[in-house]
Design goal:
The protein has 4 helices and no strands. It is elongated.
Length: 140
């Protein structure tokens, strides 16, 4: 935010914008989004629509949650794998952004891969935790 505000001030007050602000901001947005996914999952703060599941028993809710987390693991491992391949390819061909300040694209693609992988690990931990809770609910 400080970079964007500084760029706006430099552009309008001094008629001299800071070059590369847009490109760097785009890279930081990738990091912000993909590195906060796992933390948000750890807090269980992702948006969910549960108007059907809210009527289920606690055990049925846990089973639905486990199934959704398994799908999430598969989906985000696929994203991690494919974005990892894209990062390697971007590295090999020296892919860069088009703009005032050319930057290599492989770091952003690698951040997508890493953030998705970390989220997959978080989902696996939640699956293990939910299975433990399912065992406790089944004993009651």
């Amino acid at each position: 935010m400080a970079m964007v505000v500084s760029n706006v001030i430099a552009r309008y007050l001094f008629r001299s914008p800071m070059h590369g602000t847009e490109e760097i901001t785009e890279f930081m947005m990738v990091a912000l989004v993909y590195f906060t996914l796992a933390h948000t999952q750890a807090l269980r703060a992702h948006i969910s629509v549960d108007f059907l599941v809210s009527r289920y028993s606690v055990k049925a809710k846990l089973i639905c949650e486990i199934l959704m987390y398994i799908l999430g693991v598969l989906f985000f491992l696929l994203i991690s794998w494919q974005s990892g391949l894209a990062a390697v390819h971007a590295w090999n061909i020296k892919e860069i952004t088009f703009g005032v300040m050319p930057l290599p694209l492989f770091p952003a693609k690698f951040l997508v891969s890493l953030g998705s992988f970390i989220l997959s690990i978080r989902l696996i931990l939640d699956i293990i935790n939910d299975f433990a809770n399912l065992g406790r609910k089944g004993q009651q």
